Amino acid sequence: MNAPLPVTDTAAPQRVRQLPGPADKPPAHITVRGLYKNFNGSVIYENFDLDIPRGKFVSVFGPNGCGKSTLINLISGLIPIDGGEILFDGKTLAETRIGYVFQNYREALFPWMTAFANIEYALKLRHVPKPEAQERVRKLVAHLGVQIDLTLFPYQMSGGQQQLVSIMRALVVEPEVLFLDEPFSALDYEMTLFMREQLQRIFEETGTTMVLVSHDLEEAVYLADYVLLLSRRPARIAEYQMVPVARPRNDATLASPDFVELKRHCLEIFQREVRGS
Ligand SMILES: Nc1ncnc2c1ncn2[C@@H]1O[C@H](COP(=O)(O)OP(=O)(O)O)[C@@H](O)[C@H]1O
Ligand SMILES: [Mg+2]
To answer: Which ligand is closest in space to the CA of residue 71?
Structure first.
């Protein structure tokens, strides 16, 4: 039997302030309110508000050192916030399953474990029984149609293959949100292009809310439903640009007038923020 809702629940003032935005704004999945963070007295975020919409792909772009990695590290709980509130559907981080893909895949995987065991480890950490864990890894791999020999060890794999394993390790727990911090920056160009397509496909197939930090504007716009353009420190939202370009996107997208114009617009904002004028 359901317990009756406490009366205070309905009477309580709404805790999450609505941010101004277009009327067709999708529902927020993550709400950041009044975020404050400093490192040794240097303020990175001050009274910072942000909505991350559900099931959308948000790319974070901005000047070097403005706080892009810090933002996703704060939201994902890798580093503590100094003030404010971050909620996932009104829930705390502890009540939410998240995945995180690190920039440096070389340090992200356990070198003494096969690719399969690396992915399975994420479930072992959550005390999922071994037969079930193995079944879930197999299902994910089949679902994604990944063509990698998972009996290989990381050193036997290319950088792109290792990063794909990292992404699968993050996905196997079926996260509500996946964070990626410049996941392709250590890959060569060919592999980067390949991985972008893989990520786009995974996003479309899983519908997971994704937050990607990228230093490559073309990549940021190409993958995103929204590009979050940050200012120099203390970081403000310079612009939260919607990318209304059809999916799946492909090479033709990069040359389409809509895409080119959006990229140009984002670059203009970025340059204004870098110059600080
Ligand atoms: N753990 C830390 N301790 C002290 N300063 C940090 C730490 N992490 C980041 N910073 C500083 O905070 C600022 C923002 O860093 P970061 O979020 O990594 O920037 P980016 O936008 O390039 O990802 C930088 O000036 C960086 O030097
Ligand atoms: Mg960074």
So the answer is: 1
Ligand 1 is surrounded, with C-beta below 6 A, by 39, 44, 64-70
Counted residue by residue, the chain has a size of 277
CA of 25 to the centre of ligand 2 (A): 28
Collapse the DSSP code of 254 into the 3-class scheme (helix H, G, I; strand E, B; otherwise coil) and give the result.
helix
CA-nearest residue, atom 2 of ligand 1: 39
Is 212 in contact with 102 (CB distance < 8 Å)? no
**Whole-structure pTM value:** 0.88
7-49 per-position pLDDT tens digit: 333 333 333 444 444 446 678 899 999 999 999 999 999 999 9
Q: Is 240 helix (H, G, I), strand (E, B) or coil?
A: strand
Residues carrying CATH 3.40.50.300, the chain: 20-96+176-182+208-257
CATH number of 20-96+176-182+208-257: 3.40.50.300
